[in-house]
Fold each of these.
Amino acid sequence: MKDTSLRQYIELYRSQREILDAASPEAVRRLRPRALSALEALGRLPRKGDEGYVRTSLEDMFAPDFGVNLQRICFEADLAETFRCDVPKVSTLLGVILNDIYRPTATLQVQLPEGVTLCTFAEAAVRCPEVLRDYLGSVADMAGDAATALNTLLLQDGLLLHVSEGVKLDRPIQLVSLFNAPLPMLAIRRLLVVMEPDSEARLLLCDHSRDTGHSYLGSQVIEAVVGRNAGLDIYEIEEANTLTSRVSRLYARQLDGSRLTVNGTTLSGGVTRNDYIIDVDGDRCDTRLAGMVTGIGGQSSDNATVVRHHGSHCHSEQLFKYVLSDEAAGAFEGLIVVDEGAVKTEAFQTNRNLLASSGARMHTRPQLLIYCDDVKCSHGATTGQLDERALFYMRSRGIPEGEARLMLMQAFMADVIDTITLDGLRDRLRHLVERRLCGSDAICGDCGLKKQ
């Protein structure tokens, strides 16, 4: 293997395998040989141009000399300060992932409803070993995805959410992931969500980093299995500093009659790559995937989606919007696949982009692969600037130019925000997007503390 960023991590794994294995349950250890074989076959992480379009280079993102927390050191942080990002008017069941270690709040476990398990993989190996064994690694693609294979190779522990059959959570579960380390760090994060038949849950995932002057890289893999007639909502919000990079993969499998909503918001950060891979295996499923990016400065944000329809009579919608200013760069690549036999499928994909400066850049590539005739599918993408006629009209009515521009950009993002079913979160995002579009840091430090 040539001298690449991948090589350093494979050598780290081989030299520290005993330490890695000692901190990992059997369900994690058994995945490592497959992950190592996949990485050795690939040879290196993808560079710009390797993935068929303009995506940020994973090779470059993993190249810096990040530290990996093999000894599972839990760096201290002021958790009350961390939770200032809480969403007003929304009572959540709250936990924190500090760098790569899960720390539940004091009352979380006692307030979880009966039939809901939220615990580390190490705890799950004792409490519900069959769930961890049967589902971990069952959805994520290691053979074809180097970032997922590397996450699996270096994974020591993760977090399991298991919702039993028929259980419906009234309150959302909020997980705050925070970087706060005194050195450059690579955090390996893993979340496994198993929704049994007829269950329902909502997840709010907040991704933050403290401004310590150090560079951080988060490697995140989420696997979700949504059982028959189950419902799962996942809302992600990234508010990080410019030294923080993020590589996230969300894999989901839907069974008959299930409903899945995913909304990803990138408000601030350095370099971000989000991939959403959803297999609609069951019949009569509903899938809604949305995202928005507010990019300023030199921020770079990629989103890529793959929605594969295998079942019949299913409906999916994708909506992604970007507002890019200064020298910010964005990329969107979306793919809808409709297999033979997936009759009566309705699948729609939309990407809209607004460039608010001459230096901003956007690359978009929507795609359809349809192998069934009896379907309704469409895709579309547009990239442009603010509507000058609308701007002129507003200015002629006495609205200052800056305020008029802000109002138009807010209106542009409105339908993505409206896909969120949590009223408090929807209102909060409107405020944060407004601040970000004004050029301010979108850190909600003025939120009141409302953890339960």
Amino acid sequence: MLRRWINWTRLRLSRRDLGILLSASVVIFVFLLGVLLEYREIRQTPAHSWVEEAQGDCGVVLTGGAGRVREGLDLLVRGSIRKLIISGVNPQAKWEQIFPQWPLYLDLSMDDIVLERKSLTTFGNAQQSLLLAQQLGCRSLVLITSQTHLRRAMATFLEESKVPIHGRAVRNASAEDDRIEIFVEAVKYVFYDIWAF
């Protein structure tokens, strides 16, 4: 009796769920292929900050990694941008905590820096920062983030923006060959590509 029930269950499950299993397998395969291709693209993203000059009305720094705020302030000091938006700042953080080297930047005014404290995601960064950029009259932007994050950040901002955007990647804080960080970013990019772009 048990053998008959097992055979009936197998037959019934295979007939009923074969289409679902096949569809799920195809979706998983396509998703993983997308992640693999994105992983390769992200690994090839160059760090612009040491080799290229950037120009724009305003800069947008996406918080979350070392060197990003400093890169934005350096562009402001050199006159490459006239205003800087620092996006994704912790609502409770004070300026001295965000950038303790501030006293070294004698030529800068806090009037040229806007701290955006509402966004929690890259999509939120784009929505909030582009709104601020519009209010500041920015006609072009320099988007500053890490090598790993730049590709997804650029795609997200370009989807929402009406002004030209130039990406500026700073070196990742961790080792350049951090495979786990790149893999996670590749998964996020594919997720954004499917649901956000």
Amino acid sequence: MFRRRVKSPLSERVLGFFWPKIGWKRSSQYVGHRVARLPGTPYSIAAGFACGAAISFTPFVGLHLAGGALFAWIIRGNILASWIGTLVGNPWTFPFIWVGIYRLGLYMGADGGHPGGKLNFISFFEQLLHAMKSFDIAYIGEIAWPVLWPMIVGGTPIFILSWPLFFFPIKALVKRYHARRVQRHAIAKKSTFTGTLHHDE
């Protein structure tokens, strides 16, 4: 459904991930169209998308697809829609998300004991993923956790607040799309019926 018949070069795909060829506006419209065409009720599609979008505001990088799908499954949302929703977290938005939830966590009093100074979150998550693969518990506990804890605390209310902000607009979008589809089918059926009558005459 989402795959291209002929794959574009790797460099083109990487560039397209950071800056879509058709532009952000048309790209957003394309995603919205794809979401609206997913099978399921407006609730299930919107709930799934909202789960994927909301999980993007957490520091669990690498687990967003699984986390979004899990939350969607719990509330009977569309799992495929949750995967699409995780696109809210991308190379353009992640830096703002990470800084925002980290600072919010500190503001809420979640001081993990980090010595301070400017954080390079990209480097931080690269090292964290490497530590997780190599089971470097010392790094995770002593260096990563003081940064992760404020991000978890700050990301939790953003996760809760962002869910309805995505759910209700997506639900309205899907309902409009379904209503137009029903209307088109009714018109097509009526035209076919009328044409049959004229042919019989």
